[in-house]
């Protein structure tokens, strides 16, 4: 009798181990996706096409779920434009237009201060030329008559960083170089 129970217990262990392994494997495969918010609606480039490309690239990776928040058209009332940044792991800025409402700017800075991520896409580096915190967050904005207000002009030249502390207009085009990310 003991031998029969021993054989049955060994036979039952195999399906239990397979079931546990399958359950654990599925749990590992179904990790939560990183939540991404693309902020857009005004830009110097075709923001509709670039949004679609960004969204598709991120979602096709299988790592991200993406929402898009579109601002009012340029010149329209921005008072209701207030994305809820805190609901996302990372914000992709594809925006270069009218200033955001003050509360939206405060919410964005708070989001960054509490660990939120940000990616500045294309001409979003030149958005908000008069917003000092924005320039501190993105590192450098180089357009729209950028001057020394946001900080020193830092660029890469001849294999080293160059810091330009001069006052006045700071726009500079450098030769594009390939680099590994």
TrEMBL record:
InterPro entries: Class_I_gatase-like (IPR029062), ThuA-like (IPR029010)
Domain ThuA-like: 35-142
Protein name: ThuA-like domain-containing protein
Species: marine sediment metagenome
